[in-house]
Amino acid sequence: MKRKKRPASSNTWIYIIWGVNILVVVCLLSGAFFYFNSQRASAANGQVETPRADTTPKGPPTSYILPSLTPNPYYTLPVFETSTPFIFANGQGANIIGLSLASRPIEVYTFGNGAREYLIVAGIHGGYERNTIELANELIRYVNDHPEVIPQDATLYIIRNMNPDGEARAEGVDGRVNNNGVDLNRNFPSENWTAEWNRDGCWIYRPTTGGSYGGSEPETRTVMSFIGSHDIQALISYHSAALGVFPGGVPWEADSIRLAKALAKATGYPYPPLDTGCIYTGTLADWAVENGVGAAVDMELANHRDTDFNKNLNALKALLNFVP
Question: For 253, how many CA atoms within 13 A lie in the half-sphere containing its CB?
C-alpha cells in the first residue's frame, strides 16, 4: 500500500522545533562550561566571595580560656597596676612577690627583722571571704602604728590578698575562685591533692576544681615560692566562716594542733573545728607542714561580714609567741 506524503509545511514546523531544542541544549552546555571555568580561575587566583555583613545584634564579647576555647565565667579584666594600698609615713610599703592570672599584684608586708619568721595569708578565697582581706588590712595598720607588738627576735609577714582576681570579680560566691575557676586552697601539691573530691559536706555553691595539677596556678606558686625562701615558724591561713581552727597535716601534725589550741583559746573560735563531713585536700596548711613550716592552721572568722579584729589581735600575739 502506498503511503501518503506529508505536506511540506508540516515538515518545516518539525525542523523548527528540533532546531530550537538543539539551540537550548547548546546554550545550557555553553553556560555550564563558562561557569566551571570561572570557578577554577577564582580558586587559582585565591579569590573568595565577600560575605555579606552580618546585621544580627550581638551581645558583649565572650572571653575564653585557650586553647580549648571553653567559655570562662571567671574572667576578670587584666590589670597592670603595681601600686600598694598602704604607704606608711616612713616610706615603708609592700613588696610584690608575684602576679595573679590577670596580672594583679600579690603583695607581702614585712614587720620586724628577727630570726623567727611568721606568716599570715588572707584572701585565698577572694571576694567570697573578703572580710579576711579587710582583717589583714586592719592588722597591717595596727602593726605599723604599734611596732612594739612584734618581738625583737621575730619577723611578721602578711600576704593581704592571695586571690586579687577573685576579689575583683565579686563580693560573694562568684568571687571564691581564681580566673581559672580553681579553689586555691585545694591547689597546693600536698600529698592528698586531687583535682576533684566528694562534695558531701563541702562548699557546693558554684563549680570549682583543685586545678589541672597541684600548684598549677600562679597565685599558688607565688605563695609556695615565698614560703620556700623563708624559714617560717608558724602560719595562719585566714578563712570565713564559723567552722573553727583546722591544724595542718594529714593526719593533723602535733605542733599544728598546739598552735590551733593556742589560737582557739585566744579567739574563742572552735577547736576541734566543726565537722561537716567534708574531706579537705590540697590545702595551704597541709602543704606547709609537709614542706618545712613548723606549724600551720586554717582559721575561720565567725561570719562573712566581720573581721573580729579584737579577737584576731589576740591571735596575732599568740602566733608571734608560738615556738614549734
Answer: 21
Strands annotated E in the chain: 64-65, 70-71, 95-99, 105-111, 116-121, 154-159, 232-240, 245-247, 295-301
Say which residues have a Cβ less than 8 Å from residue 84's Cβ, sequence separation at least 6.
Answer: 93, 94, 96, 105, 107
Q: Which of the two residues, 70 and 187, has the higher pLDDT score?
A: 187
Instruction: Identify the pLDDT of residue 289.
Output: 98
| The amino acid at 68 | S
- Report the chain's terminal Cα–Cα distance, integer Å: 133
Total residue count of the chain as it appears in this document: 324
Look up residue 129 and give its DSSP letter: G
Residue 16 in grid coordinates: 523548527
In order, the DSSP letters of 166-217 are HHHH-SSGGGSS-TTSB-GGG-S--TT--S----TTS--SS--BS-SSTT-S
Mean pLDDT of 218-233: 98
Cα angle, residue 223 at apex, residues 193 and 295 outer, rounded to 5°: 70
Rounded to two decimals, the pTM is: 0.78
Residue type, 99: L
In this predicted model, what pLDDT tens digit does every residue of 101-145 receive, in sequence order? 999 999 999 999 999 999 999 999 999 999 999 999 999 999 999
Residue with cell 573530691: 197
Domains plus CATH for the chain? 94-320 (3.40.630.10)
